[in-house]
Each structure stands twice: as structure tokens, then as C-alpha cells.
Amino acid sequence: MSDKRKDYLSWDEYFMGVAMLAGMRSKDPNTQVGACIVSENNRILSMGYNGFPNGVSDDEFPWKREGDPLENKYFYSTHSELNAILNFRGGSLEGAKLYVTLFPCNECAKAIIQSGIRTVIYDSNKYADLPAFIASKRMFDAAGVTLRRYRRTGREVTITL
Question: What number is the average pLDDT over the span 25-46?
């Protein structure tokens, strides 16, 4: 009898890797964010990335970050977390976990809480000092959503497409 492999991916590596891969679908030239929603028994339920809603041309709407609000991306783009929630076609997300490459903003935090997701595992929190992200943390704490920063392992995964 042979021993099983010992260098397989942990659940955290696997699901954060899926979120990172999903983020690579984003056409945003500045920020690519991915999300992966997972059941309590470690089954992938849904994925999402930041981009424009279905039917809204990413060639005809702006990707800029600054300037007139109607001429930048913020009124038009949908964040990865909300896309993952909206892409879910099952029953309930109650008790699910969300792996996301960037800590959720206040708008996504509301959707996460309302959907029943109970745990958020995030990679980067580069906007932690901004009001929208402080508000997120406050809401997550008040709603009893568990927050955990993903611990990078340094493992490299190469995929040849």
C-alpha cells in the first residue's frame, strides 16, 4: 500500500486560488477582484469577478477611476462579491463562506450579510482605513459574520492554457 500525496492544496489555497483565477476574468485595467462562495461542506456554490452587468457593453462604458461620476466606472461596475451572490442559482447561501481577493466594501457587505454568508476570508485589505471599509467591518461585526485574513503560503501554481 502506498502513502497518499502530501503536497495537495489546502481548502484555503484551493478556494482562494479559484477566487484569484476568477478575478483574472475582469476587464478592469486597474483592479481585478475575484470571489468564490463555498458551502459549509466545502463545495463551490458560485463565483464572480468585478465587471459590468450583463448587457452593458464594456466597450461602450468607461473604465476610468477619476473624473465625472457618469464618465468613470463606479456607477456601472458590479463587484465580484455581488456578482457571485447574484450568479448563485441554488437555494440558500445561509452558512456559506466567501473567499474574496479584496476586503468587501460597505455595499457588498450588506449583500453578504443579507444573503446569509457567515464567514468571509479575504486576501488584501489595502483600503482598510477608508470609511466604506470601516463601515463594512462594523456591519460584519454587528451581524456576527466571521472575518479571516487569508494566510498566503507562498506556493506557486502554474496552469498552462
Answer: 97
49 neighbors 35 (Cβ within 8 angstroms): yes
pTM for the model stands at 0.94
Distance CA 12, CA 42 (A): 10
**What is the average per-residue pLDDT within 31-48?**
97
The three-class DSSP label of residue 121 is strand
pLDDT range class, residue 101, cuts 50, 70, 90: very high
Q: Which residues are catalytic?
A: 81
CA dihedral 59, 68, 125, 121 (to 10 degrees): -50
* pLDDT mean across residues, the chain: 96
From start to end of the chain, where are the E strands?
A: 34-38, 44-49, 97-102, 119-124, 146-149
Could you tell me which residues come within 8 angstroms of residue 57 by beta carbon, excluding any fewer than 6 positions away?
none
